[in-house]
Sequence to fold (674 residues):
Amino acid sequence: MTNRRVLLRSRPSGKVGHDNFEIRDVAMPALGDGQVLRRTIYLSLDPYMRGRMSDAPSYAAPVTVGEAMCGHTVSQVIDSRNASFRQGDFVAAYDGWQQYGISDGRDLRKLDPQAAPISTAIGVLGMPGLTAFVGLIDIGQPAAGETVVVAAAAGAVGSVVGQLAKIRGCRSVGVAGSDAKCRYVVDELGFDACVNYKQDDVYTALKTACPRRIDIYFENVGGVVSAAAFRLLNRGARIPLCGLIAEYNARGEAPGPNLLPVLVNRAMIRGFIVSDHVDRTVAFIAEVAPYVRAGRIKYREDITDGLDAAPEAFMGLLEGRNFGKALVRVSPDPTHP
Amino acid sequence: MTNRRVLLRSRPSGKVGHDNFEIRDVAMPALGDGQVLRRTIYLSLDPYMRGRMSDAPSYAAPVTVGEAMCGHTVSQVIDSRNASFRQGDFVAAYDGWQQYGISDGRDLRKLDPQAAPISTAIGVLGMPGLTAFVGLIDIGQPAAGETVVVAAAAGAVGSVVGQLAKIRGCRSVGVAGSDAKCRYVVDELGFDACVNYKQDDVYTALKTACPRRIDIYFENVGGVVSAAAFRLLNRGARIPLCGLIAEYNARGEAPGPNLLPVLVNRAMIRGFIVSDHVDRTVAFIAEVAPYVRAGRIKYREDITDGLDAAPEAFMGLLEGRNFGKALVRVSPDPTHP
Fold:
């Protein structure tokens, strides 16, 4: 039995390219006592993976060169010598960019395909959704009537931030990279406004979209969006900082936003890493899962077929070419034939 | 009776120059019922005044062109038609850059020249000291064994930050603009180390001075010091942000520090304005005044004689040419003949 894997061949200097990856077929070891073998159905592509390709100091160890890229997965058990798992079970795992995973099962979480589509376990009801929840609710502490701005608003995190903010009575303003995404964000997700950062004068457009300026700027991109948002902060503004995707491909260190508006407005910036906040999962699921079931929180998936296409899809994610949560369908989803 | 005043003649674009000021003698009005007339002894020069010269949006209204520059003062009552004040009383006021002030007295705070030198009311025991206290203690929340970094370490705010941090059991590292200031900061004020940002490779020198990296970076300067400190943050670092003096004379908007270390280290930046925290004055005086009396917190004053020299002294402050708390002695101090 052969396992196809996408390895990190070399660390990128600046922009990620195909030459940073290598696709290799390796033999699977035999299943040991107590072990669980599963086939990857969905692989989640997330911006944080750019950090793991680099060996710059960060909050997690980098992927070793020559090893498979890391990543959250949704899989189906195809063989089990572990009493807790049966063939056919669906599980959430962290198997990375490969067709099969094998372990003692302690890294697996069983999924109920009746409760929600299995792909949501790595999307709106998974790590991206929890990131939105912790950043907006715990750090941002939104109050009704406040204005919340989030970039990558059609994406996995941004879409949940804006919809949760609406539910909490805020004005939700998105930023996205095309008119089609902006229309989706406003018409489908129900944001109050959306700015196309590739076409508009971002500062002027954001100012128009935020007539009462900005109380919470959910920072997940950096760059020009960040610079514009900082200039529009209200007194006492909060800036949950969970990502700087616009800067991940930069060679060397990009300058950040001028901090004078943070001083003048007594604003607060707080960096956070979602893995520190897994204790909030229960509260997150209790609040968000019913909204998803009721259609009050919508999500969109941008699915690329086949593991071989993962590098290209990941490069697209870093440049905002995805439209919705970026997933790779590594093998067919039996729940959506 | 003539009152000499230093007026804001024009708003600076970039660097402050002599042409932004105008010295003018005006007649004093007669003293009305209930009013108090005082002669300025000391005028405090502080970095925030650069903000008041500009009409960019800020936390306080700008000085009106043609009006006297604002500022904290220590004065002596020379005439009073107010039962609460007697000729000879020393008071702290906010009379600005002028020889005399007049008001109904509600803006005055009586000083006891026996308790502390009167000049400390606008220095180590005044607004600059309170700024250090609120930023370090309330926002920074220092724990024994942590490393605290502060720039302008020989100045009014920085010197108190570092000495208070030492008293709380922290490692205190200063940054200052000359070897003489650095020697003073270490030898006199008792900091553990000090980096000369004008001579050293700031990042390398700061790294050497902070072998356990940085837990609290008290941000009062911005610029190269800020960029270096951000790269050395520890996990959970706190950054009280009270000033960006290195950027005040910039034309347009200077870029800020890259925020990736804030994200990776789950750090927190919080802007604050000391005038929001006057409720902390009692706690501040209760803790710091005994240290000052006991010589555990030392201070140094950089006194310029004569109101006419205030513009030059203020320009020096913005470029770090002062060595200690910047004061103008507008008239002789009778308590220090």
